[in-house]
Prior knowledge:
The complex is a heterotrimer.
Chain A: H1 10-24, E1 29-30, H2 36-45, E2 68-72, H3 80-89, E3 95-99, H4 101-105, E4 126-128, H5 135-151
Parallel strand pairs in A: 1-2, 2-3, 3-4
Helix pairs in contact in A: 1-5, 2-5
Chain B: E1 49-53, E2 56-61, H1 67-76, E3 81-89, E4 107-115, E5 120-128, E6 134-136, H2 145-156, E7 159-161
Chain C: H1 4-24, H2 70-76, E1 104-108, E2 120-126, E3 129-136, H3 144-150, H4 153-160, H5 168-183, H6 189-218, H7 221-242, E4 251-252, E5 255-256, H8 264-287, H9 290-296, H10 304-309, H11 315-319, H12 326-329, H13 350-374, H14 392-397, H15 399-410, E6 418-426, E7 429-437, E8 445-449, H16 451-455, H17 458-463, H18 468-478, H19 482-486
Antiparallel strand pairs in C: 1-2, 2-3, 4-5, 6-7, 7-8
Amino acid sequence: MGLEDLQHNFLTGRLEDLVKWARRNSVWPATFGLACCAIEMMAVGAADFDISRLGMEVFRASPRQADLMIVAGRVSQKMAPVLRQVYDQMMEPKWVISMGVCASSGGMFNNYAIVQGVDQIVPVDVYAPGCPPSPETLLHAILTLHEKIRTGAITRRGPGGTGEQPEQLAGWVPEEPDAVRVATPR
Amino acid sequence: MSPEEASQAAPAAAGPSPSDAPAAHAAPSVSQAPVPSQSPVLSPLPDVQTSPGRWASEIAFPPRERYHDLVAAYKASGFEQLSDVTAVDYLTHPGRELPPGVEPERFEVVANLLSLSQTRRVRVRVQVPADDPVVDTLYDLYPGAEAMEREVFDFFGIRFTGHPDLTRILMPEDWEGHPLRKDYGVGRVPVQFKEAPGPR
Amino acid sequence: MTDGTDGDMADDTIRDTVGDAAIDGDAATTADAATDDGFGRSGVRRAQRAAVAETSEGAQELSTRRETSPDELRREVGAVLRIPEGGVVDTADIDLERPTDETMIINMGPQHPSTHGVLRLMLELDGETVLRTKPVIGYLHTGMEKTGEELTYVQGATNVTRMDYISPLTNELVFSLATEALLDVELPPRAVWIRMLMSELQRVSSHLMWMATNGMDLGSTSMMIYGFREREMILAFFEKTTGLRMNHNYIRPGGVAADLPDGWEDDIEVICDTVLRRTYEYDELLTGQPIFRERMEGVGSITAEEAIALSLTGPILRSTGVPWDLRRSMPYLTYAKLDFDVIVGTYGDNFDRYAIRLNEIRESIGLVREIVERMPPGDYRVQDRKVTPPPRARIDESMEALIHHFKIFTEGFRVPEGEVYAAIESPRGEIGCYMVSDGTAKPYRMHIRGPSFVNLQAVPTMLRGGLIADAIATLSSVDPIMGEVDR
Lengths: 186, 200, 487
């Protein structure tokens, strides 16, 4: 709707930048710590690896108030519907970081009990590998997400794309392209 | 009820004690296991087979009918706490070592008892056949057995008569099958790696 | 929904009922008492041994008191020990006609901000008072015991270490002890002492983590930050020694994976001094503070009899006055040679558990200092070619070393047939490993007795009759780690 149809002149261009700036500098995570990765996520929230400097130290308990779901830990078959329900309760715009190998792909637990990758349930924006990923890795993932928010379109819902990619991207872009948002049934 | 001090344990290190060991190339080794209790072996029900065990004073092999009585007898003789109830599915390892007179069955329910006053452990192993996987519960003797026996039921399908709430505890309620049985697969999803052919 | 007076009456009624039963004070009844259940519709069958008791509610449901069966109530109400022999809780005694029997069933979790992982608590509330609790677990079930049967003994430590993820070295240690008991090997002294050093540091870091999360549950965010700050020092040391901050895979069957790094004594000295000094800051912040004391004292109490019957161990059991610590009573490794105190509480309430854990930090710091002084030189793993891989440099020189390395890391080493239950004292209680081997390179059955799994059985007893705000504090003081509850 609306904004991507407009030609970018100085007025609407700045509005879009302003919206993206506001969004990426106060991404509030929802508490979704499941297993060992949750401890590293709490360490990121603590003093040594402070995410408060990124505006993110308020972990909202209610998904209605959260922007980001960091799936930290292994998702078991029993937990999968709960995960989807919490994701559905979050308001747009929302992002998902899959933290750790268990959330990204099932990790070392390739068995009957663990969902092999949380992207089978929710669309994931950034994958952070590690078992557990050290807090620096999680910070890198968060900053990658910030970059994705900065360079993506502000109304990027819809099947397929992440919005237009500008030609020149600054510093934090990783070598591989970011995860493509998959179409999920509503 | 104060347990004995560590003075009851005779030093069991083989070789010189570590505190005054010089740099010995012949690496004297130390035992890590708790020293077994010096009290005589128990066997409260004399007609039940027992054998010595690792990290335990004795291992008892009661028949299924006497399982509850044996555990009650142990409890009466000072085993105040139940450490663990678990089970093993011996489907793919039928030829295990058992004392004479004990018939091997498919399942084995294992209860570990602990005596705080005598600081010793005892293990009780009951053979449970596959066609009738039912055993008495220990809930009336040790209420702490409740969650453990539910887990055994969840993973092996062994039912405990007298258990107040025998339902699945770790798997979802509507799960079919008992995952830790040997004829239940791991559920591995084949993973395609870039260079590797075939499932891993 | 009710005003204060009605709520009080309801509480008195419940407590009177239980109180009468408590006066009799007999031991737990057998489940085979009374074939009629007073309701007639709950389907409780007490027939032959083939019949199994069915309760009126499934594992994931919670019904109000009026709709449930006596068995279910007996589990929750009054704690099983207070039910007299041969008597079933007669639900007619509980006054069901009073106007305030509108109870509320609420669901806490599995995703909730009290950072104890994915535990779901279903609570039946009368106003603010908790009547019944049913913990529903399994949301983190990972199939680790099944995975343990697919991995070799060399790989097993990586699997087991992720169960209790706050003190991973403890899991590895119990797994290694069980394996070594089956292998019947004895370790060089330095390996044993390194294991003790890491265990005690792990205990400090786990209790610091507990204090951090407990503080946050009670509202003290500063405690959260302080706890993690201290813990980072210990994790930095772990990273230096083992390579990882968490889930180290360091204590393996045969010894430890690598020797202590250079300068480790100085690192430990800094850690010990800092942490010990800061425990006195925590005293100032929490222990003497009136709000903290009011919230923790007398809340969530449990008696020694109940604790032993429910198979509780660790700080919960010690808070009731039972001086049971496996390091002292059934010493493993070489704890018999070390001098430390076992901290014991009196009232079995939350405050006692807090004080026990705080003082255990201090005791463990003292133990760490003693271990540093007495650390023997020597090998850090057993020199058995079949069990321990050779040093990497030797692989280039010796064909035999290459073959051993290959066999150990592909097939693994074979362990003789046998079974063992090895148990040690983790920061949460008794963690045990029941291992059955069939002569191959993989365990036939690897079961870990998680202390939190068993300690969670205390939660209904502790929460009953308290306020819902206390439920968080009590649950936090039980210190459940869902990784080892669900495995």
